[in-house]
Amino acid sequence: MSVITDKINSLSKSKFRSSFHLRKYMIDYINKVGLEKIKEDAEYFIRNRISDTSKIIDGKQTPMKNHPVFIAQHATATCCRNCLYKWHHIPKKRLLTNHEIDFCVALIMAWIEKEL
Q: pTM, whole model, 2 decimals?
């Protein structure tokens, strides 16, 4: 199994993480704009809301509604630096690397595709 698949399976065992699911209007939105646009949004949110810890109040930067990527971030523990550290062992006090951003985006997209 791949690292992404292993992470998705591990996260699915968490009562909290497994409680998140895409709502119909989110699935409709994904079908309307396409997965490439969703992937662009995921990368934007990770780069601009999660990567640089000097700009955020950790734990408050990812809403729990409205955009499918936000729901996916909570489901995949890519919603804040505390969760990234706890679940993925990514240190908190520095910018994310491009590799870490790519990992987060891949994890988000895998979760979304599983939900469709």
A: 0.92
